[in-house]
Amino acid sequence: MSTQRPDVVVAGHFCIDIVPTLTSPLDIQPGDLVEVGPAAVSTGGAVANVGHALRQLGARVRQIGKVGGDALGRLARSLITDSSDFIVADSEQTSYSIVLSPPGQDRAFLHFPGCNATFRADEVPLEILKGAKVFHFGYPPLMRAIYEDGGIGLARLFEAARKQGTAVSLDMSLPDAHSEAGKVDWRAFLEEVLPHVDFFLPSGEELAFSLSFAKNTDYSALARECLDMGCRIVGVKLGKRGMILLSSERTAEIPCLKLDSSWADLDLRHACFKANVIGTTGSGDATIAGLLFGILRRDDPANALELACAVGATCCEAADAQTGVAALSEIERRLKAGWPKNP
Q1: Are 160 and 126 in contact, with CB atoms under 8 Å apart?
Q2: Which DSSP category does 273 fall into?
Q3: Using an 8 Å Cβ cutoff, are 226 and 190 in contact?
Q4: pLDDT band at 252, cuts 50/70/90?
Q5: CA 215 to CA 125: how far, in whole Å?
Q6: Rounded distance, CA 92 to CA 290, Å?
Q7: pLDDT digits (tens, 9 = 90+) for 20-44
Q8: Which of 11, 131, 322, 329 fits as disulfide partner to 64, beta carbons 3.0 to 4.6 Å?
Q9: Phi, psi dihedral angles at 278 (to 5 degrees)
């Protein structure tokens, strides 16, 4: 375990992503054999994706994920060799996702939660968080032990992190509506957790599902509900429509980061940048990394939001969640050259 203090600790959902190359829309019938192209195999989930994108931008990162003692777990540990603290459950199986990303269509997932289901909040070592500026936790709806207590354990972890002087960031995921996670009272979960969260960064669909179990698309109104629950800043990822950023008056209470008054009472929107879209897997995680990095270097809100959308756009230029994420120098070059946005 490294003694170097990170800028960001990323914990939560971790898996192996298997992304077959698809050249046309899928229409699979029982008994069919569908020929596909080569598969991209990489680490995935919030831990791998946010962590990788932050490193591409130049941040110091530590990652905390849980893997099994199986072949996929051994593969995971071989793919991430530095600045990672794997919890190894020898008798359990590693999570994986088969990502189906046909051209011109949004992606779909075949997902096995594996040992993410047994990952408990108290397995995150507080010592690792000490000295970090930001602690990001991703995908509670894919982690049964995180949500089955109503968020109490996660809230305690976040409270402890903030007492040590670390800001807290939280992302969600969209569960299978027919699964156990799909029937959880996510509004009650957020009411428990969000008072201890500084940056809440869900997608629009995740936010609507969590608060209303309906297709409410007034994302600004939903974001304000989250602010009322106690978090400081809400960023809602809207896919090809970009991102919105709203905040309360309490941004000055965020430890370590020393955000000035320009971060209070925000209601900003930024369009998505145009990209040569090959796949959208991981683009939300990359967007989060861009926003957090902008905050770490004390950008003003508009520039941090611009960076978030830019990093997310580069992620879409590869089939997997990590290969396309550009270095900071390339992103800045595109921005200076007048990178066009979607209408």
Answers
A1: yes
A2: B
A3: yes
A4: low
A5: 38
A6: 33
A7: 988 888 888 899 898 999 998 889 9
A8: 11
A9: -105, -35
